[in-house]
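Lab channel / #folding
Pinned by the channel admin:
"Please post every new chain as: sequence first, then the structure tokens as a reply. Keep commentary short and put observations after the output so the thread stays searchable."

First post following the new format, from NK:
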Amino acid sequence: MTEEFGRSYFYGFSKSNYLNYEKLNPAKLFSGILYFVRKHNIKVDKVLDVGCAFGFLLKELSSAFDELHGFDISEFAIKKAKQTVPEASLKIHSLEDPLPYPDNSFDCITAIDVLEHTQNFEKNFGEIVKKLKKGGYLIVSTPLEEWPRRYFGCLDKDKTHISVLQERELKTIIRKNNLEIIDKRYYAPFPVIYRIPGIPFSIEILLRKQ
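Reply from TO:
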């Protein structure tokens, strides 16, 4: 799996949705996440970005959090992330393996377009929640197996999207993990540098651990 997320994944030479990840506009790409943070005044100590890629989201969040952490399965991506956010604590790690952090240790965790790449969405979602403090925030974005995907799924060229759920399945997992839905937004990532709002091709969801 690791070799699937090397240089070619981020620069459009393999079957991903990216032409050049490095040229994406982080403020536009993560506009929904930044909206959640501003709207709900999320300013806490420790944030963990699961699947942090080049560290663009951590950089955007750096003014809201005192301590930045991230990991990614891609050694190539982590090398880039260390240049983007040298102040962050970054690791090369797979979400499929036990997470190298104590339980109940983060005030906020982001998992942006990452869980759909894993073999077991529900199991890995639960492992992430364990690392979140009570009252902490979890922000997730993921594609949905809803009507837009039936008609326009061919536009998603990423062959590593192996765990795409229906929204009802996602909500069941959220309830099982004792999380409260605070806010949500639907979007379609076409083209990938923008997120067209209101179309339930994918979801961005803000959760809080009860």
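NK: The longest strand covers residues 132-143.
TO: also worth noting, The mean pLDDT is 92.
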